[in-house]
Amino acid sequence: MSQPLRPVLVVMVWQGRERFQRCLASIDKATAHFSRIVLSITATPDSADLALAHEFAESHPGVEVICTGKELPTMQHQTFWVDYLERTGTTPDDWIYWLAYDDEVRVRGIERIIDADGSWPLQQGTAYFGPWAMRHEAADRVLWDESGEHLQSWTSFPLNGPLRLPVGTWIGRQLAQPTYMQMSGSLAQFACYLSLRDARPRKDGPMRIEMSIAAAPPNIWVEEFPAPISIIYGRSNSDRASYGSAARKEDFHLVAWLGRHALEHPEAIVPLTKAAAEVGWHHLLRWTRGAPLPAEDWATRDLVEP
Asked: What pLDDT, on a 0 to 100 scale, did the predictor assign at position 238?
């Protein structure tokens, strides 16, 4: 009898403290839905986050705790856990559920999408992004919300359109009219992370990582689940309004990455070329007339329970 298809949960932790505790509390309710749980800490060996991770692992046999030994930038931290998974038997076809330390697993959403034997509905050649259940908290206060208040469901897909798009079409839409995107709570095959680690030019920063993972060589499609499988916390000190200027610093890598994707998947050339032309036009208007670049469109679906 074959084993249910379940992803590896990888949690990236940096100065998480109480927000990491909140994340662990959500994982506590969801351990049966993952084939492995890896808590990757970037910190010194005496950090509070590492102590929290070991305490959690002691009460949850099988949870794996790894630590960089010093604080690393995001992409170096990602390479650290990718190397670890590769050494410990993860195959390119295995699936990774990527979660940030300050977000939560949404068990209700997972239980809605899995089948009777606990298998996730994951198809090769597809990356899964969203929707995301959203909460907002102040930068100086950690929100432990047990009120049961319904949450907005944010999406990067057309509100009245399909939930499955070719990679080139989905990225083209994002470049022409940015929407909310979030790596936390996404699912992609491990091959995507191996490719991002090994390909050149090397990716230096985390911005645009969603597009880079979506455009990794294995992928043809991007899909949204019928319900959010993660709860994302937004704070004023990580305001998405600053995403545009910061993300554009990563555009050199993205252009090279999309060119590689188009060579492997020629059907993506037209939507990507169209989007690139629109983006170029917007930049030209900005440089010559001072026109603003397109604002991020925060599109929401129905309210959902936590």
From this structure: 46
Which residue from 20, 78, 26, 87 is spatially nearest to 47, judged by alpha carbons? Answer: 20
Residue 235: other Cβ atoms inside 10 A: 16
In this model, does residue 100 exceed pLDDT 50? yes
The residue among 23, 204, 18 whose CA lies nearest residue 9 is 23
Taking the mean position of all CA atoms in its chain, how far away is CA 225? 13
Domains delineated in the chain: 8-300 (3.90.550)
Q: How far apart are CA 163 and CA 222, in angstroms?
A: 8
